[in-house]
Amino acid sequence: MIHVIVELSKYFICILMLLYTLQCFTVFRYREEKEKRHILAKQLLLIFFMNLAAFTVIYLQTEDFQIIRFYLETIVYFLAIQILYRIFYRKASLLLLNNLCMLLSIGFIMQARLDMEKAQKQFFIVLVGSAVALLIPVMIRKMRFLHKLTWLYAGLGIFLLLAVLALAQMTGGAKLSIFGVQPSEIIKIVFVFFMASMLWKDTSFPQVVKATLVAGAHVLILVVSRDLGSALIFFITYLVMLYVATKKPGYLLLGIGGGTVASVAAYYLFGHIRQRVAAWKDPFAVYQNEGYQIAQSMFAIGTGSWFGMGLCQGSPDMIPVAAEDFMFSAICEEMGGLFGICLILVCMSFFLMIVNISLQIKNPFYKLIALGLGTEYAFQVFLTIGGATKFIPMTGVTLPLVSYGGSSVMSTIIMLAIIQGLYIFREDEGEELEKIRESRELEKNK
After folding, report:
1. 170 has which bridge partners?
2. What secondary structure does DSSP assign to 59-124, as a single string?
3. CB atoms < 10 A from the CB of 56, how many?
4. Considering all CA atoms of the chain, what is the largest pairwise distance in Å, rounded to the nearest integer?
5. Contact status, residue 209 vs residue 215, Cβ threshold 8 Å
6. Cα 51 to the chain's mean position, in Å?
7. pLDDT for residue 45
8. 3-state secondary structure at position 174
9. Neighbours of 135 (CB within 10 A)
10. Residues near 280 by Cβ (< 8 Å), separated by ≥ 6?
11. How far apart, in whole angstroms, are the C-alpha atoms of residue 212 and residue 207?
């Protein structure tokens, strides 16, 4: 009987994910706020049904009562965060909030399936991050001096990265964390604020040179620390923000050329980069060593096929550090390739929503911040999924909100809280413009 339930559940969960993904895009067809809220409410129901089905299957397979308790804790959290945002921020984007809950749901389900202890730790960090995040939108609206802290952002970022370089122990071939905290995750946000404050008003050549030198210092320290995934994210974010601020393709082409030369140099300077490239080119040629992770990831994705093997029916624990670096492979094995495609589309809708917010903001400082944060999010998703599917060499970054990683999930929740603050700021700008138009019309009528 349990086998039948597990077999049916994977199709049920996949259908729920398909419906949710479809609504992420169809919601934009509706102009009436009432219709949009109806779609968004249905999304919430789909999230709750998916959690119920998934945790029921995991409990039936493991008979561990901790699964039930963890499920109830997560449901209370999702209800609380939805209610609190509706009370304190009535202008908040409910689609962003729903996507946050959906991606966290997928992460909690897979972490509970892989390692209950890690799932509990992640849940606690999510609670702390969400409590902090509730304060951020109002801070974005009230703290109008953020564009003045340019060199504080630069100094803080470089100081923390140097501290990691000096004090951190080697983990997986790179210096990443101090006392279990990975500062580069928080510095990603600080870096965006630095770039925005440098370029929102002045895009002259001397200003661009200053921004490039500071950005280069960030990237160089990360490369020396061998945190290549973060270095790539910083570099791409710098390029995108510079191009959007200056609107000069020459800077973009020069940056791409410089990045290409630096990549070739890094290949010859660092042995671990050559190992990762060798594993990417032919993982089965170095299967016993560097290629083992990639090979197991490919086996997992292939085994899952379209609909997956069902929760607790696969062997995702055969992939080293599956909960951190190869969560996408574990998802595809047990929940299916179709579910994985939907996950990518949900992440894409997240990014498109952020870009849309950026385009509609009039304030150039906040516009650049939204674009920079969106770029960091999208490129991190690309690096993680691209590495897991052998599209690009593995960089060791996490899938935001889904993979296990305290610093990553904390910084992503804070990042999305900033986006919510910018969304509300955009709404305020719209209301102010509407008032101005109405006052002008009244003056004309007089």
Report:
1. 175
2. HHHH--HHHHHHHHHHHHHHHHHHHHHHHH-TTS-HHHHHHHHHHHHHHHHHHHHH-HHHHHHHHH
3. 17
4. 83
5. no
6. 21
7. 93
8. strand
9. 11
10. 294, 390, 392, 393, 394
11. 9
Residue 101 in contact with residue 59, Cβ under 8 Å?
no
Residue-wise pLDDT for 340-368, tens only, equals 999 999 999 989 889 888 888 888 899 99
pLDDT exceeds cutoff 70 at 64: yes
Distance from the first to the final alpha carbon of the chain: 78
353: tokens are 């929503």
- The conformation of residue 30, written as its DSSP 8-state character, comes to -
**C-alpha to C-alpha distances, 422 to 106, 124, 384, nearest whole angstrom:** 26, 26, 27
Q: Which helix (H) or strand (E) holds 171?
A: strand 170-171
Question: What is the H or E stretch that residue 261 is in?
Answer: helix 249-269
What is the rounded distance in angstroms from the CA atom of residue 47 to the CA atom of residue 76? Answer: 13
Domain boundaries, the chain: 2-134+291-366+397-445, 146-269
Average pLDDT, rounded, for the chain = 86
Work out the pLDDT band at 402, boundaries 50, 70, 90. very high
pLDDT at 122 over 80: yes
- Mind giving me the DSSP string for 333-379? HHH-HHHHHHHHHHHHHHHHHHHHHHHH---HHHHHHHHHHHHHHHH
- State pLDDT tens for residues 225-280: 888 888 899 999 999 999 999 988 888 899 889 888 888 888 887 777 787 888 88
Total H helices, total E strands in the chain: 17, 2
Residue with tokens 């003056």: 443
* Residues near 82 by beta carbon (within 8 Å), at least 6 away in sequence: 44, 97, 101
Model confidence at 445, pLDDT cuts 50, 70, 90, reads low
Q: Which long-range contacts (CB under 8 A, 24 or more apart) does 141-147 make?
A: 141/421, 141/424, 141/425, 141/428, 146/193, 146/197, 146/365, 147/196, 147/197, 147/200, 147/201, 147/365
Report pLDDT digits (tens) over 408-431.
899 999 999 999 988 887 766 555
Q: Other CB atoms closer than 10 Å to residue 39's CB: what's the count?
A: 19
CA pair distance 93, 350, nearest whole angstrom: 11
pLDDT tens across 178-230, in order? 767 788 888 999 999 999 999 988 888 899 999 999 999 999 998 888 888 88
| Other residues' Cβ atoms within 10 Å of the Cβ of residue 252 | 16
